[in-house]
Fold:
Amino acid sequence: MVKKGEMLYVSTTDAGLAKKAECGGAVSGLLKFALESKAVDAVLAVKKGVDLYEAIPTLISDPKDIDNTAGSLHCGTVLMSKLVANYAPYMKGKKLGVVVKGCDMMGFLELAKRNKVNLDNVFMIGVNCGGSVSPVLARKMIREKFGVDPDTVVKEEIDKGQFIIKMADGSHKGISIDELEESGYGRRSNCRRCKVKVPRQADIACGNWGVIGDKAGKVTFVEVCSDKGADLVTKAAAAKKIAVEPANPKGIEIRAKVEASMYKLADKWRKRDFAELSPVLWETIKTETARCTKCYACIDKCPVCFPVEDKFKNGGTTMVRPGTLPVDPMFHLRRFAHISDSCINCGQCEECCPMEIPLALFSHAIRTEEDAFFEPKLGKAAYTN
Ligand code: FAD
Ligand code: SF4
Ligand code: SF4
Ligand code: SF4
Structure:
């Protein structure tokens, strides 16, 4: 019987699924079993859209359809949690399995605090996350840095610190993420600062870090994070839907080292991003947000922002006049005051802003500063997202 806290190597026993999966297919295998055994009524995952730079959320109730979602889309920047919150009123006690990155998981926790989702009805299958790449920037990066037409790429992956692309003729090219990021490409800026690399508040956390030797690429490293997660893994193994063995102790050690080095890297980016901002934060916010066209995408996508409709969108005070452009500075100042103490640095606001205003940078900087103020003993590292 599998227990909470165990570290495992897991693979699907479904040969067809194994071919499509990113590593061992543990995520897809478990989701399929959860549907078959009625542990969940539906699964929310992503599948490839028109090309591999587009990740489309998809709701699945037929276990066969899980096969279309296998594999990792590193340009998939969609946030699952707000999506679930928007549809939660229609779920009526149904159980949902969801694949979550660290930011998706943090979003669910914040939504649960606001009674927007009931976590008893949500099964979170976590995937470790070193970062995702903005789709538009990914295409530009592949054209300019790799010298390759992005439409000829058939697979992308992130491995051993490199962003790697594979072409239809079997050739591949890789460039180190550090080099890409030094020249303005690579992971989204919020991802560089993110410190939720292993989503341990999900029911299980799955990844490839720590899979070593002849198992590399063939199994998924699974950390069992809850009793609910342990139960699903135990039952799926008993039904022979997945194969389970203890993780290699050396692999566990390596995974911990990689995770620690990712935290250091995130601290480096925080220092750099926040230092540039620090003396001129409010001036910068005022200047940058002056471009705002009041499209409200940042409000609609934010998992911690649920404004009273009239106050944000239709004005409601003389300091935020309805229909007025350029935007009144108070529109944004009020928003930052309202959300920054629980900003999870998911990057959705920045990603969706048509005016390319660095909104996540602002709210993350304010959140980090507030945490350091209220928890001075922990210093600037107090908040771990
Ligand atoms: P599969 O059975 O292939 O299932 C993968 C699942 O992930 C599918 O359900 C699919 O819908 C879902 N998915 C794919 N892309 C996304 C997305 N963008 N957002 C939400 N869900 C998605 N592991 C590490 O150990 N270290 C890392 O640095 C790391 N970085 C990652 C970065 C990203 C953006 C993603 C999506 C995953 C990352 N992973 C990382 C996890 C790893 O790539 C595998 O997802 C994990 O090992 C599970 O493998 P599997 O074969 O069991 O998954
Ligand atoms: Fe991954 Fe964190 Fe970026 Fe979310 S914010 S995609 S968890 S690195
Ligand atoms: Fe995410 Fe932006 Fe909201 Fe912060 S403010 S939680 S980065 S959408
Ligand atoms: Fe303004 Fe950008 Fe927010 Fe739209 S997404 S309301 S343009 S800041």
